[in-house]
Recover the amino acids of this structure.
């Protein structure tokens, strides 16, 4: 699988994603520059975390207008895989590749900690190595991750099964005490209708190695790698 | 401002800018004439306490600064130490105390920005930060908003940069009511051979300016940092600098990329005293001269005078000496990252600074006498008059109810969990954080190797106040102990020496004694000082802060696979108490926080015992049998055990041969370790070999903390302690 | 010509920041404050003096960048070049 | 009575947000924009109809909470209760 990690000025998780794809999963990875108009033949495009262009206005607002986003949109329209993590998720909502909006955390503070997340769908190319209802632990680190949409739209998202991850208690229940950023319906990640574009606030790339004490995020990248080759590409080389 | 309206240069003006009469005369002597306004401004900045270290220099010489791993000691932008596998660690700590008191958010943010530039200007990629904070009482005026502003400022800047803040310390004490401390530490890593220095060279090489434009912000920040606070400080408000972490992030990437072009001779950030200190210091280190054409300096607003340009502290700016003919290579990189580049001058032969603006020579001065030749003072030193009373042995009441005392201590902001703070800092970005904030030392992975770097920051200002020599020793010893608990060998330290007004003999005494104590401990424990910072004049309305020599230490963990945690993780581990208690309560949390007494001699620091304890841990940790190690600090054994059980909610049952009161004694060189059951003999044998008193006292397990001590008993649910400990700080902040 | 653009969370959407400010005001003695809404304000200096075209351009800027119309609404006010 | 409070960074102080927005607008085709200043806007519903006292109270709110006068300046506009 050829992977591209987009670098906006201000991206700061670009190298983290690169590291997991390249050194943990042994995939081919290139960086894509925000001014690029071609995706260099990548199968998967990752929009990483960070503060694209400083994000002084709203997370992802400026990056949504970057030249590379036109190419990402075209790639998504053709069914190519697009993964947005944290700031990348914000870029995807701001560019309307994903529904909803990510507003300031309800507590109005940046939050960095581990959260529990329930996998709502395990039939996506991103999640096939999880099981439905599985509860995993992932780090989050953001100030604007409060997912918001109109009630009617939220119902539509649920009906179309576009909610992929939710914040839950360690035992898997939805509970305001564990929905630390106040997201509507505890939504932590959504996909588009076709299921080839995924955005999530937690950082799977920060929990993909034994040495960090948590590997719950690795399966997300493995799912993609496996999808591309029908087997674990990391083992294949 | 035009020349016509510029103030007359004379002694009163020189005084206003912080020069003494002698210093002004010295400057006139150097020039052989009356200085221009620009020259006066430059000199007042270079000779300020902040830039020249004129009061502290004589004592800083006492620190050991070399060692087999040290590639660069004090004198550069940051220290450089080898950490193995071809990597070096580059680190430094800086204070931003006064700016943070005036405007906490921007003050703290730009403090972080400044220390990061110090590190990446050396060619290293910053990978971790610590912040050491001291606040006053939370009900002192403005204090809650100062805490909030400082924490947000540090968080927003570091988080945007994508550099994890993995630890730090936070203290509260009335001596900081009017003068808080914000000390920021940054660590970068680089390949050994890729270190850059700020040493200008090569006649005719162009001097480039990159980064943000210059505005009027922060003019005379260095002088402000060298002045005590009073009602007048309010008027200095316009000197507040505003941080732009996004620009710093692209500046970081562009600098590291440009350093790979082989077109850069020297590079230096513009920190305190902006363009002045950066260009003068670079030239002084290289023994060359320079010429600046200020008409080419990129400005945020038109009409800045030469004086303002030379002294502006606008943030996120760097100066580069490029190889002649290759500057375009450098410029291309910066432009690609959306940054401005301007050639503002060149290196000249000789040793003079020539600064031209609008066709007029604004400054023409010798460089070395202004930098290396800055005034040095041996200021009067005298112990405080009330020292004997301060050190008088206090009476120590018995705790009627040891559990009640423990709970009361855990509920103070001083000893409560600092999670409310560090949760606002991204501490997992860069995917290297093996042990984040919350334990003894933070540990980050050196990617591609089995090795970790351990970091900690420590000082006990109350000990330093009661006995600065012991306090200085204790800060270093505690840092070594914190590192040892992760199995790390210390490789170097950096410091931030925060003190009051050096013109008071008792403050200089505190300074001298603290530095001596630190130096003794560094020698005994084998830790070189590779960089640091001095912050004096931390005084408001005549009241000095407690002496606060913050120590940040870096260590190497050879193999992360064996690392213990600082809390209990599994039941059935044998708990071993290391070290000896001497029932020491001078300056203790027990007396200070529960009985309002701040008196006595602080716990003695037996450097030999500290060295033996550290060696024991460093030898046994790699065996994989030490699963938990946590040292004792404020609050003694009881608080340390509470922390060790709260960490993962794993209880413990112990029986210790101590009087109930001594559960709170703060004797040094002590720790609790949890050993794999079958390995106890082996561990005790090692302890004996190292001469470390070791006593098996119980085991981990259950969900309660049970401590029996000479008939008294603490028996409590860990969950209850956790609740008290985690809620205390947000509650005290009124959240 | 100068313009002022104000961006607020849409009425039907929660405004935690406004609520927090109202709470803080009331705690420090401004209990008469019934409601606070918190938004952003931009002062934009345009290189045109044509109010008609300025208004259109500003609306485009809002739609494209300044506001996220999923959750925010905006208001544009033109300020006389001289008066600003 | 309603009021609108606008808080901007002081003129002489760096406004990274405004600078970034101006840059972004120019990149997406609004190169006519000469300058953007970015600030905050608060809509405040007061429990009084007395413009005089309202003005005083609002100034106090700004000084105490809404603006950080070290780096920001504020402007208060009273809006007629009915008109808002
Ligand atoms: N301002 C801060 N920023 C980040 N981490 C902090 C801060 N203050 C305290 N911590 C973390 O909280 C923990 C406890 O701090 P401290 O009581 O100073 O530890 P110790 O007594 O072991 O030196 C440490 O892990 C420390 O890194
Ligand atoms: Mg400590």
């Amino acid at each position: 699988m050829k992977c591209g990690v987009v670098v906006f000025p201000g991206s700061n998780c670009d190298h983290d994603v690169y590291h997991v794809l390249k050194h943990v999963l042994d995939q081919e990875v290139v960086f894509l520059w925000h001014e690029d108009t071609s995706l260099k033949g990548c199968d998967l495009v990752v929009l990483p975390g960070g503060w694209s262009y400083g994000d002084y206005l709203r997370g992802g607002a400026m990056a949504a207008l970057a030249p590379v986003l036109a190419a990402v949109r075209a790639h998504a329209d053709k069914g190519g895989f697009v993964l947005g993590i944290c700031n990348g998720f914000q870029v995807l909502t701001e560019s309307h590749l994903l529904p909803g909006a990510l507003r300031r955390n309800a507590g109005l503070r940046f939050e960095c900690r581990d959260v529990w997340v329930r996998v709502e769908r395990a039939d996506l190319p991103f999640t096939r190595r999880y099981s439905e209802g599985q509860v995993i632990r992932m780090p989050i680190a953001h100030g604007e991750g409060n997912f918001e949409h109109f009630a009617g739209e939220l119902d539509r998202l649920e009906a179309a099964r576009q909610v992929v991850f939710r914040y839950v208690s360690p035992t898997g229940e939805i509970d305001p005490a564990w929905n630390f950023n106040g997201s509507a319906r505890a939504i932590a990640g959504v996909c588009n209708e076709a299921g080839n574009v995924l955005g999530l606030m937690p950082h799977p790339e920060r929990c993909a190695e034994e040495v960090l004490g948590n590997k719950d995020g690795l399966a997300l990248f493995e799912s993609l790698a496996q999808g591309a080759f029908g087997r674990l590409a990391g083992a294949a080389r | 401002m035009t020349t016509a309206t510029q103030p007359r240069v004379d002694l009163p003006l020189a005084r206003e800018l912080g020069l003494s009469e002698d210093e002004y005369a010295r400057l006139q002597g150097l020039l052989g004439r009356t200085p221009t306004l620009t020259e006066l401004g430059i000199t007042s900045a270079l000779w300020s306490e902040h830039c020249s270290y004129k009061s502290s220099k004589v004592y800083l010489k006492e620190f050991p600064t070399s060692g087999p791993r040290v590639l660069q000691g004090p004198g550069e932008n940051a220290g450089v130490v080898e950490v193995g596998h071809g990597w070096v660690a580059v680190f430094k700590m800086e204070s931003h105390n006064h700016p943070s008191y005036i405007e906490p958010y921007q003050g703290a943010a730009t403090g972080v920005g400044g220390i990061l530039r110090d590190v990446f200007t050396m060619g290293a990629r910053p990978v971790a930060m610590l912040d050491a904070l001291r606040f006053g009482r939370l009900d002192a005026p403005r204090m809650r908003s100062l805490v909030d502003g400082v924490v947000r400022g540090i968080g927003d800047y570091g988080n945007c940069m994508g550099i994890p803040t993995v630890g730090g310390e936070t203290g509260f004490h009335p001596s900081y009511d009017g003068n808080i401390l914000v000390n920021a530490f940054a660590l970068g890593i680089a390949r050994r051979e890729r270190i850059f220095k700020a040493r200008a060279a090569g006649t005719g090489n162009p001097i480039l300016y990159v980064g943000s434009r210059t505005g009027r912000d922060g003019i005379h920040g260095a002088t402000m940092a060298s002045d005590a606070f009073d009602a007048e400080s309010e008027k200095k408000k316009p000197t507040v600098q505003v941080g732009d972490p996004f620009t710093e992030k692209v500046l970081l990437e562009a600098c590291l990329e440009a350093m790979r072009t082989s077109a850069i001779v020297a590079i230096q950030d513009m920190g305190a005293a902006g363009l002045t200190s950066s260009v003068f210091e670079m030239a002084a280190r290289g023994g060359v001269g320079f010429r600046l054409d200020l008409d080419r300096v990129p400005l945020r607003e038109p009409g800045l005078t030469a004086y303002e340009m030379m002294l502006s502290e606008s943030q996120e700016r760097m100066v580069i000496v490029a190889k002649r003919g290759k500057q375009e290579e450098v410029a291309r990189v910066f432009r690609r990252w959306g940054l401005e580049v301007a050639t503002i001058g060149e290196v000249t032969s000789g040793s003079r600074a020539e600064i031209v603006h609008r066709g007029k020579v604004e400054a023409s001065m010798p460089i070395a006498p202004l930098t290396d030749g800055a005034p040095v003072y041996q200021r009067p030193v005298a112990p405080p008059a009330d020292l004997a009373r301060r050190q008088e042995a206090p009476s120590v009441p018995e705790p009627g109810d040891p559990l009640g005392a423990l709970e009361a201590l855990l509920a103070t902001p001083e000893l409560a969990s600092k999670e409310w703070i560090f949760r606002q800092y991204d501490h997992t970005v860069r995917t290297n954080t093996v042990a984040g904030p919350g334990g003894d030392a933070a540990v980050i992975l050196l990617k591609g190797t089995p090795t970790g770097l351990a970091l900690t920051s420590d000082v006990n200002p109350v000990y330093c106040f009661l006995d600065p020599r012991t306090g200085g020793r204790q800060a270093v010893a505690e840092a070594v102990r914190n590192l040892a608990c992760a199995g790390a060998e210390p490789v170097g330290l950096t410091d931030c020496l925060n003190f009051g007004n050096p013109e008071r003999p008792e403050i200089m005494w505190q300074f001298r004694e603290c530095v001596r104590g630190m130096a003794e401990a560094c020698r005994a424990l084998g830790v070189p000082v590779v960089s640091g910072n001095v912050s004096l004049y931390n005084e408001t309305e005549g009241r000095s802060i407690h002496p606060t020599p913050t120590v940040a230490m870096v260590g190497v963990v050879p193999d992360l696979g064996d690392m213990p945690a600082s809390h209990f993780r599994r039941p059935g581990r044998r708990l071993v108490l290391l070290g000896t208690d001497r029932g020491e309560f001078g300056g203790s949390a027990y007396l200070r926080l529960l009985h309002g007494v701040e008196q006595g001699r602080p716990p003695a620091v037996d450097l030999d015992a500290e060295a033996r304890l550290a060696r024991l841990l460093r030898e046994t940790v790699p065996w994989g049998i030490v699963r938990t190690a946590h040292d004792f600090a404020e609050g003694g054994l009881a608080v340390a055990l509470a922390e060790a059980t709260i960490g993962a909610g794993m209880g413990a049952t112990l029986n210790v041969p101590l009087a109930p009161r001594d559960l709170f004694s703060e004797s040094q060189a002590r720790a609790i370790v949890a050993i794999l059951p079958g390995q106890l003999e082996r561990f005790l044998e090692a302890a004996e070999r190292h001469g470390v008193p070791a006593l098996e006292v119980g085991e981990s397990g259950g969900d309660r903390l049970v401590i029996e001590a000479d008939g008294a008993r603490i028996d409590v649910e860990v969950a209850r302690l956790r609740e008290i400990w985690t809620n205390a700080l947000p509650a005290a902040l009124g959240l | 010509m100068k313009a002022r653009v104000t961006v607020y969370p849409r009425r039907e959407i929660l405004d935690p920041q406004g609520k927090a400010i109202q709470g803080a005001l009331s705690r420090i003695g401004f209990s008469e404050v019934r409601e606070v809404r918190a938004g952003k304000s931009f002062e934009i200096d345009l290189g045109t003096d044509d109010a008609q075209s300025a208004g259109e351009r500003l609306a485009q800027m809002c739609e494209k960048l300044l506001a996220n119309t999923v959750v925010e609404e905006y208001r544009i006010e033109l300020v006389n070049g001289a008066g600003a």
About this structure: The pocket of adenosine-5'-diphosphate (ligand 1) is lined by residues B 131, 133, 165, 167-170, 418, 421-422, 437-440, 442, 458, 482, 633 (CB under 6 Å). The first strand of chain A starts at residue 2 and ends at 7. The CA atoms of residues 128 and 233 of chain A lie 15 Å apart. Chain A has one domain: 2-236.
